[in-house]
Design a protein that fits this description.
binds glutathione; Glutathione S-transferase Yfyf (Class Pi), Chain A, domain 2; about 220 residues; Glutaredoxin; about 5% strand
Length: about 220
């Protein structure tokens, strides 16, 4: 059986979640860097494979998948020794899926809405977008109250994708102290992920993006 191929860029948050899961599963990808900062994702060969031209994109023996959370679900189903990371119990899985969709459509979306225009084009910070992001972190805080992990009584791919989002916020110096359930869960998840090269694959790359953001803020006078 040939090795699945992952097209990625190390600092990209959705790519980071895939690399962390691969480490947890002991899965070796054939890794191919697509430098989206240089527009490499727009090359005809890549667009022919993924018309949405985004990373991460995976090709597992002709099965081409993008959308990081879909890739996470597939990899657990295809390569994990148990269903622990994506439970097959339908009521638990329903909660995992809800958290994955919440992260995709609301939490991570609001993070990018607030930070990325400044980070990439030096646009001024938008306080309405900051408020919407803060609202979403508040919803996560309510979800986490009384729970050790996001969706099950143990770590799942819901924690993984939310961890990448929240750790990115932390690196951006977003004030997490008012959200004590999120903060406690974040510390628990970091400890859980430490043996899986968390620092190298996620934390250091979150800081890299945050440094890009801060550099742009300094250039534009923090407006
Ligand atoms: N929802 C997607 C987001 C993918 C995404 O936006 N990737 C960015 C990098 S973080 C990208 O490839 N941008 C280049 C482009 O869209 O052309 C996922 O979770 O995989």
């Amino acid at each position: 059986m040939s090795t699945p191929v992952l097209y990625y860029l190390p600092p990209s948050p959705p790519c980071r979640s895939i690399l962390l899961l691969a480490k947890m599963l002991g899965l070796d990808f054939e890794l191919k860097i697509v430098n989206i900062m240089e527009g490499e994702q727009l090359k005809p060969n890549f667009v022919a494979m993924n018309p949405q031209h985004c990373v991460p994109t995976m090709n597992d023996q002709g099965l081409v998948l993008w959308e990081s959370r879909a890739i996470l679900s597939y990899l657990v189903a295809a390569y994990a020794k148990s269903d622990e990371l994506y439970p097959t119990d339908i009521r638990v899985r329903a909660l995992v899926d809800q958290r994955l969709h919440f992260d995709l459509g609301t939490l991570y979306q609001r993070l990018t809405d607030f930070y990325f225009p400044t980070m990439f084009i030096g646009a001024p910070l938008d306080e309405v977008k900051r408020a919407r992001l803060t609202e979403a972190v508040g919803w996560l805080n309510a979800i986490m109250e009384g729970r050790e992990y996001a969706a099950a009584d143990h770590f799942t791919i819901a924690d993984l994708t939310l961890l990448v989002t929240i750790s990115q916020l932390e690196a951006f110096d977003f004030e997490l102290r008012p959200f004590k359930h999120v903060k406690q869960w974040l510390d628990r998840c970091k400890e859980h992920m430490a043996p899986f090269d968390y620092e190298e694959l996620n934390a250091s790359k979150a800081v890299m993006l945050a440094d890009m953001f801060r550099a742009k803020m300094n250039q534009t006078g923090g407006s």
